[in-house]
Design brief:
It contains six helices and five strands; from the N terminus they run H-E-E-H-E-H-E-H-E-H-H. The chain is of the alpha/beta class. Strand 4, helix 4 and strand 5 form a beta-alpha-beta unit. It is globular, with a radius of gyration of 14 Å.
């Protein structure tokens, strides 16, 4: 499927993420980086060569997409940090709106996942840091 078809699926079903994995469609209602990070913890190659449509892509999601070797991504909102990472690794991307950074769910600061990788440029280091941060956030609930 192409980006436009995946965007339609995302909007019609109110998903947070829709992915074409070589003809197999993966969808999620989970928020944040969980729809990407969770399957990658089980299978690091889960998103290899995939076409992704996501609602929000910050640097954290961008780094996960790079580690997962996606083909291309479209998102409604992307951060400048995510753009820089995707360009650095030559990942094709399109977006509807670019923002300075991804805002947290409370609306009073930076997304904790983007903040976690803000000063990390190594993709493997970022993956480990995001798993750790996800665990910390889950334990707070």
């Amino acid at each position: 499927m192409e980006i436009e078809e995946l965007k339609t699926i995302l909007e019609k079903n109110d998903y947070t993420l829709v992915v074409d994995r070589k003809g197999e469609i993966y969808t999620s209602y989970l928020k944040g980086v969980a729809p990407v990070l969770n399957p990658m913890k089980e299978d690091i190659h889960f998103f290899k060569d995939a076409i992704v449509v996501d609602r929000v892509v910050g640097k954290a999601a961008a780094m996960l997409f790079i580690k997962g070797h996606i083909q291309k991504v479209h998102t409604h909102i992307i951060s400048l940090y995510a753009c820089q990472m995707l360009e650095k690794y030559s990942i094709a991307y399109t977006y509807d709106e670019c923002v300075d950074y991804i805002i947290n769910r409370q609306g009073n600061g930076m997304c904790p996942m983007e903040e976690t990788v803000l000063n990390i440029d190594d993709i493997d280091e970022a993956f480990i840091a995001l798993i750790k941060k996800q665990g910390e956030l889950m334990n707070k609930k």
